[in-house]
């Protein structure tokens, strides 16, 4: 046994650490470093680089011109080379509490920060992330509160003839409480998938924190995949590790809305839910807001709470689906049944602002009641996290 | 309504695609491209780069010398610059079916492949991945079979005085079958966490496929966090997005083993389990094999199936814990109770090969029965996936 004892724990740690730093590039610098005053320093060791920049949503936006018009894009800042080929940039001002995304650009080549293992994929783009705590952003953190369970579960959709994946949040205590819970269906935007609200939306952290503070009711949150041609998020389906495509044939043409009752039936069969309209909410961002609008009016007895977050409103003229027929009559029926909440949130510089203004005008003209929340900024995750923290406390009260 | 109709779906897609390619660097090349003959081409657009290399476990290993001895490390290959600054490398031979990891090295700076959104974090290192199908590697794919559910769930450990996170796989049909299931506890290596077996180990795919083929019994798989000082994987705890540390004070000093009954109690309370030794298995890789060894002999009435995958065997001499006292007597008691399976798997070039040889000699001398599986290669995930596909079919028969 003596010989076996000689095998030291240090060996395991030592080899791994060595391999990591010497062979795999490693992380000889700290980046990002969040200082006590909430200024942030970014560092990259790149002795051979000629130009190193950082781009991200923590920088002032800059206008970008596209064939579709002018939009706000993330800014870019230059890092300066210091000792040992370590480049550095510190924000001139403290950053406001928020979850931020960023990437480096080294000699015009975008790359992740090798010192930061935290990355979030948004559609086909991966960026590093960091979080400045305080204020509302404390809701985005894992805090010392009871934590719900996050499950990836598959359901069969007879309408779409597919097995499909859902992300489901059940509140802390669900497994052993024996109780039934209300259900909030939370839908992503175009190109997103059933991972988007968990990764970028911080849904499980926000719900854990709001429920622990007594500000939101304990509820089940169901995050669907709104692309009816997909089984699951990229990398999680039979497509394997195929590059995500922006060719999205079944996103805003009625298929997802038509098949939505399959999801509700599955959830009511599989979880301890309160199976009535009074205990169901639906909301979504951008395309998911569009889905929420059309699903809630198609099935007027299904949802008592509706949230449109930076929503697209009307289908493309070329799109044909019974879902979009009889718009006025369906909306009339929905509002005649007096939903407990019809909530519209939009940012002042969102490219969908005008469409939302026109839709609100229509609702106003017909006397359909809704709650309106206007924020700064545009069509960005920062707003959708804010809308979630505003919307969830209003549900099931 | 006419005006609202003018808002085209194309706008949403168009802006996103444009922003992605023009602003965020985008992915103008296909990489990796897996050809029909299973050769693979890697591409990177980097017009200003002087040297571009690819490193990964698909290349022949090369010796690296460390203070701890000589080990096999991943190889490196040069890409060649072609038209428009696109660098390229194609493997000279087809690659065998496997899940592979790789990174680019651009002018000595390691970076992810911007054309590949699929990445896996292993401890503090993130690499891109791709999969060559066929043979055993088909078990690592999402196939057209019923899929189990993967949940991240928190439990309270009275022993460690912490809320801690688990990853739990429940087999397809669990939610509505009403049946009770056997439980397989599957433990990660040093520096890993409760995400390791799901991400790199492909546990949910392997179990889905083995169960669908009738080769493994439907079972619950519980993946713990073996670092008793952690609540959860990096990024998932109150530590927030702190850089993962290789300072692991509570990994191989008895705390995790002492607190293990907390996990079993929680699982038996929370899931429909078969709550007896006959229906419990434990296995782990490297440090997780060490944990499995010491937990199974500490609690000889808990586990009927034990798997040591490239296991560390004995604690460091300086470590003091009642867990490691009376080694011989505890092992005698464990084997007197005749476990249904005591399985040892190790690679021929593993740095723990000698320690495992000596441990087997000890078992042989005492007449303790075990099953031995020797593979090629060393202390790598390729082997641990293989061991899982070999071990899981032997359980609960």
Task: Write the H/E string of chain A, N to C.
Answer: HHEEEEEEEEEEEEEEHEHHEHEHEHEHEH
CATH class of the largest domain in chain A: Alpha Beta
Counted beta strands of chain A? 20
- Treating each run of at least 4 consecutive H or I residues as one helix, how many helices of chain A? 10
So, the CATH homologous superfamily of the largest domain in chain A? Alpha/Beta hydrolase fold, catalytic domain
User: What's the structural domain tally of chain A?
Assistant: 2
Largest interface: A-B, 116 and 116 residues
Distance between the termini of chain A: 65 Å
- Fill in the CATH topology of the largest domain in chain A: Rossmann fold
Note poorly predicted spans of chain A.
Answer: 1-27
InterPro entries (chains A, B): AB_hydrolase_fold (IPR029058), Esterase-like (IPR000801), Ig-like_fold (IPR013783), Ig_E-set (IPR014756), Mycobacterial_A85_antigen (IPR050583)
Keywords (chains A, B): Signal
Protein name (chains A, B): Esterase
GO molecular function (chains A, B): acyltransferase activity, transferring groups other than amino-acyl groups
Textual characterization of the structure:
Chains A, B: It comes from Phocaeicola salanitronis (strain DSM 18170 / JCM 13657 / CCUG 60908 / BL78). Chains A, B: Residues 1-21 form the signal peptide. Chains A, B: Keywords: Signal. Two copies of one chain form a homodimer. By secondary structure, chain A is of the alpha+beta class. Helix content of chain A is 25%, strand content 27%. In chain A, helix 6 crosses helix 7 (287-298). The N and C termini of chain A lie far apart (65 Å). Strand 13 of chain A pairs antiparallel with strand 13 of chain B.
């Amino acid at each position: 046994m003596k010989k076996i004892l000689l095998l030291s724990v240090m060996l395991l740690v030592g080899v791994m650490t060595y391999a990591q730093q010497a062979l795999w590039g490693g992380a000889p610098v700290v980046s990002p470093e969040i200082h006590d005053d909430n200024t942030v320093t970014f560092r990259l060791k790149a002795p051979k680089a000629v130009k190193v920049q950082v781009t991200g949503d923590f920088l002032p936006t800059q206008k970008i011109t596209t064939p579709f018009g002018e939009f706000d894009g993330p800014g870019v800042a230059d890092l300066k080379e210091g000792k040992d080929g370590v480049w550095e940039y510190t924000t001139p001002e403290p950053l406001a509490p928020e979850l931020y995304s960023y990437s480096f650009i080294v000699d015009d080549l975008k790359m992740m920060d090798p010192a930061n293992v935290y990355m979030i994929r948004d559609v086909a783009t991966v960026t590093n992330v960091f979080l400045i705590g305080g204020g509302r952003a404390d809701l985005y953190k894992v805090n010392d509160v009871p934590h719900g369970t996050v499950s990836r579960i598959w359901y069969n959709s007879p309408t779409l003839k597919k097995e499909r994946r859902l992300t489901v949040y059940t509140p802390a205590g669900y497994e052993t409480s024996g109780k039934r819970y209300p259900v909030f269906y939370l839908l992503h935007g175009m190109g997103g998938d059933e991972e988007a609200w968990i990764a970028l939306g911080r849904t499980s952290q926000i719900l854990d924190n709001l429920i622990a503070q007594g500000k939101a009711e304990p509820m089940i949150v169901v995050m669907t995949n709104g692309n009816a041609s997909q089984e699951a998020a990229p990398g999680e389906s039979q497509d394997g590790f195929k590059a995500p495509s922006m060719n999205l044939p079944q996103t805003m043409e009625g298929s997802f809305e038509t098949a939505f009752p399959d999801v509700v039936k599955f959830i009511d069969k599989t979880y301890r839910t309160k199976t009535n309209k009074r205990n169901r909410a639906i909301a979504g961002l951008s395309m998911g807001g569009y889905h929420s609008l059309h699903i809630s009016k198609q099935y007027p007895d299904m949802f008592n709470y509706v949230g449109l977050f930076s929503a697209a409103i009307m289908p493309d003229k070329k799109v044909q689906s019974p879902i979009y027929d009889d718009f006025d009559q369906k909306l009339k029926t929905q509002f005649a049944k007096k939903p407990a909440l019809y909530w519209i949130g939009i940012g002042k510089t969102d490219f969908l602002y005008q469409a939302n203004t026109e839709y609100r005008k229509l609702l106003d003209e017909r006397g359909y009641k809704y709650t309106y929340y206007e924020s700064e900024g545009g069509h960005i995750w920062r707003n959708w996290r804010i809308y979630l923290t505003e919307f969830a406390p209003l549900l099931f009260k």
